[in-house]
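Service request form, structural biology core

Requester: graduate student, group of Dr. S.
Request type: structure prediction, single chain
Budget code: on file
Notes: please return the result as structure tokens.

Sequence provided:
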Amino acid sequence: RKLSYIWIPWAYNPSIHTHYYLNKKWKAGIPASNLLIPIRKQIRDYYSNKRNLEYLDVFFKARKGSISPKKYAKYINSCEIAISTCQHDDLQFFNGRFIGMTFNKFYEIPMCNSLHVAQRSADLEDLGFEDGVNVVLFDSFPECVEKINYYLKNKNEMNEIVQSSIELVRERHTYKRRVQNFLVDLEIFFDIKNIL
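Core staff response, request fulfilled:
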């Protein structure tokens, strides 16, 4: 195979993103850095106003003062479901279609033992993620709410997906694995075998 570039996806830090064995204080939460993304704001507004659902807004807490990476991970670990959305800027479109980007939360959330309900992005399959198997994906606000409601009522399925995601991340998405893959790709990229 020939490579025109070397792709190094994000990975997770096992010393930070781990199961802290905390009580699941919140049903759902959005561990996010800002509210500029329209769908994220829509989800946040919806769950912030639901009185019958314990909802954590990590972004809101983070705005009041910075939080450490471990505290951030503990917030995630305290949620049954953690919701993520893709950046929505010009870089996330290809041929007029929204493609999104798979980022750290795809590794951090399951390793904190929470179900990851995520906006679909283009490279997920290449990374081994499959909807309903090791992640829960949505394309719209109504689909997000529908899936969250479903999994909150079906805890066994939720736990199976979380466990499957943990296995995938441990097997394929550690920094050690990224370095191993990089060295293989580097050899292919520069065709080192023929030079030696």
